[in-house]
Request: fold
Amino acid sequence: MKRVEGKVAVVTGGALGIGRESALLLARHGAKVAVTDINDEEGESVAREIAESGGTGKYWHLDTSREDSVARVFTEVAHEFGSIDILVNNAGIAGVNKPTHEITAEEWDTVLRININGVFYCTKHAVPYMQKAGGGSIINMSSIYGIVGAADLPPYHASKGAVRLMTKNDALIYAGDNIRVNSIHPGFIWTPLVEKLARESPEGLDAFRRGLDNRHPLGHVGEPEDIAYGVLYLASDEAKFITGSELVIDGGYTAQ
Ligand code: NAP
Reply:
């Protein structure tokens, strides 16, 4: 059964990791997918993979922290595919990992510009298409770090906490338009983002990964597909009564 047949989805940060897997899964389930990212080669390759497996996908270069680009790309997507029904606000960065008192204003702003402003710009420019279509689903990628602290990555925590509450507030603002807005809170998922954190860690990649595995009661970090299935569910009409909710997919991390 195809679960999002005929819908148009925009996935930000769709070239790698969680975004890539979400774009591929949405396409496999019948959505026309706009794969957007700043990594053009990898993004083009995701769109090609979608086309080669019989789906509909196209790549657009999109830096979500630039409102002018967001407005232009969303206009082009709606022109190409007819509308926008699903928005996966996935693009994000980890940012600096220093204690709060050592972070510069520029380092702080860099994370907020992408992780918060990006979600704002994309939501702002997707909503009019969803209103016109009579509804839609917006899925915001927060994190376990938007729910609990971990004594690291201060601007990342701030940004993901903001995304969690932006989700609930937008859910209320747009409920009357039949636009559902939900957040997903992944535990550690083995993606290029986490691999980079592991490589830069003082203990080295293997020890870092073992340490992460042990922090999840299920005994290991997750895979991008674990999150993509959550995206697919929230995007589909199976979730038609779900809005303002937070879907935690974390191997038990926040249950402790
Ligand atoms: P990833 O492997 O780094 O992939 C994210 C993609 O988004 C990359 O291609 C990245 O490019 C791109 N990107 C960065 N800034 C962008 C911008 N301004 N505009 C458009 N694209 C941009 O990350 P991931 O691990 O899949 O994470 C995806 C989302 O899940 C993020 O919001 C992250 O915070 C969240 N999340 C991840 C985990 C995890 O453990 N992996 C856990 C909780 C939440 P660059 O490579 O150039 O940065």
The first strand starts at residue 8 and ends at 11.
